Amino acid sequence: MNILVTGANRGLGLAFVKLGAEKGYRIFAGVRSEDTEYPELEKLQKSYPNLVEIQTLDVSDEGSIEASKGELEKRGVSLDGIINNAGVLIDRGVAFHELNLAEGLATFDINTFGPIRVVKHFYDLLKGEKPFIVNISSDAGSITNTYDGDYFYGMSKAALNMFSEKLRRALPAVRIYSIHPGWLHTDMGGKEAPLSPELSAESIFGIIEGEVSVSPGANTYITYDGKKLDY
Ligand SMILES: NC(=O)c1ccc[n+]([C@@H]2O[C@H](COP(=O)([O-])OP(=O)(O)OC[C@H]3O[C@@H](n4cnc5c(N)ncnc54)[C@H](OP(=O)(O)O)[C@@H]3O)[C@@H](O)[C@H]2O)c1
Question: Where are the transmembrane segments (predicted)?
Fold first, then answer.
């Protein structure tokens, strides 16, 4: 399988690259900047030179996405799937009366508009037999189960869930998921988090491969182990 992963230099994104390459998948690993060094990802690229390819892909910059897509298209690359993983949590714990709207715009720009930009440009490279788009969401995007805090983050993921549902209708031949990856031991999730990004990535690959079953009646919004979430 050929898979595009955004935010691939650390955390869950890096786990997708490592596990995907171990499985023999060809991974196009998106990173924000061509001027930054990404030692862990570069090490993986050296270990799997035919499978891991680093792509400059700043999800907040439509030009960067167009350029990356154009380059892959010119080389005749097609994709089986897209994993929109890049995300930020900027407003953790900020009360509603102290919210900084610039941070809100930045959060939506990456968490919501990022996947929209990527799908807008890359969907026509999806030519595999059972193509898929995985939007990495969060349980923080559930309106039913929301809490006081992480306002912009939760709203950006709720909007991402809506995008997934609309895509499900627009692209009936493509499997579309909005997946909560669990509370992860990453820079975003912190050290106390109970779940490793590797285990989460393994289970999400299981959903993609049909090895992990998805709750009957679930639409696009599910957990990393296939359980239905309430919007
Ligand atoms: N960790 C959790 O407990 C948890 C729970 C629920 C959902 N999630 C979701 O899971 C996904 C991965 O989270 P994580 O824990 O792995 O986070 P992380 O360790 O903070 O990594 C975030 C990744 O996103 C990239 N990114 C941010 N802005 C970008 C941009 N404009 N263009 C390209 N890449 C960009 C980062 O790149 P840079 O290194 O360049 O910043 C980094 O690779 C996110 O969508 C997050 O919302 C995480």
Answer: none
Distance of CA 108 to the CA centre of its chain: 14
75 token code pair: 């080389």
Q: Which residues form the pocket of ligand 1, taking CB atoms under 6 Å from any ligand atom?
A: 6-7, 9-13, 32, 58-60, 85-88, 110, 136, 138, 180-181, 183-184, 186-189, 193, 197
Torsion angles phi and psi, residue 55, rounded to 5: -120, 135
**Integer CA distances (angstroms), 83 to 11, 94, 114, in order:** 14, 29, 12
| Å from CA of 117 to ligand 1 middle | 16
Ordered domains of the chain (ranges, CATH)? 2-223 (3.40.50.720)
pLDDT of residue 128: 85
Q: Where are the beta strands (DSSP E) in the chain?
A: 2-5, 26-31, 52-56, 81-84, 132-136, 175-180, 221-223
